[in-house]
Amino acid sequence: MKNGKLFLISLLFVPFTTQAQTFFTEDFNSYPTGHLNTNYDDTTPGQGGWLVSRGSIGSGTGMITAEAGKGNVLTITSNSATIPGSYSFRQEDGFLTTLWNNRTPGNNIFKFEYEFYGVGQINFAVHILNSSNVNATIISLAFQSNFGPNLNRISGSYLENTSFKTLNLKNYNTTPFPHNIWIKAEMFVDYNAKNVYFYIPTLNIQATAPFYHNTIPFSLDFSAGSLDITSIVKIDNIKVSGLKTLPSYILSTNKQLSSKFNLYPNPATNVVNITNTENMVVQQVTVYDIAGKLITTQNFNEQAEIQLNVENLASGTYMLHLQTNEGTAVKKLVKK
């Protein structure tokens, strides 16, 4: 059941009796076919409260269409073969803040999910925002195909602290972009462990990274750009939830990534060597003490084997966050 409705309900899932709270769902099934919103002014609510806008050339259009086996979906297209078009749809400012502030105590993991289908030239992204500024993103996921030279990829972005970081989840410069299939995507912001997670089960993609802020969700925004007459973007089954614990499939995959890395010597005195079994490259190592305090950050130039200088660390136990293209692995280090 979804109709752009708001929910504040709790469900028990088995096994593990993990309690989840559904805030909002949208599957477009209750709407007649045709425009999601006939007013493309970004200020007049349409069906389900959705606000829509498009580029000045007016070539981006969002229509409710029937999809075999799925019911209704939102289909975004362009009528221009020469000038790239754009289309955006969003909920009103503060939409997520109200839902988040009324969540059941303990549901401190924000989950956002949807299904995506793309064809042709596209630059499609969904942003969970922390203010009305579209650049103020807590977490976002982008699908880019034929967007520009060497821009055939899926990427995830997130607010680290006061700046934004981007993870290149999958490059498609030498392999075909996954067109013409429905892709399930999930994003998590875990305010307990201070980690974000990107999960695309359809393509077997998962990544994670740490963050260091308490900024809460404000609103959500979908945007499709670089559209031409060959472009098709479809969206379905949008859902916003609050969780007490991460799903087991997220936890198990994160542990698998960490298990691929080796630290030696450990305990260490001056230098610790960091290697892995699959030649994954490391961009950055962030060191925390056992209380979670940030100690230092060191950047590396896409190296599969690195030497980390720990000479200036006080004796004790530390957690190393290793940022890679596949996510962030966490390893424990003991400094003599």
From TrEMBL:
Q: What is this protein called?
A: T9SS C-terminal target domain-containing protein
Where would I find the Secretion system C-terminal sorting domain in this sequence?
263-334
Q: Which species is listed as the source? A: Paenimyroides viscosum
UniProt cross-references to NCBIfam families, sorted A to Z: Por_Secre_tail
Superkingdom: Bacteria
- Signal peptide location in the record? 1-20
Kindly state which keywords UniProt assigns to this record, in alphabetical order: Signal
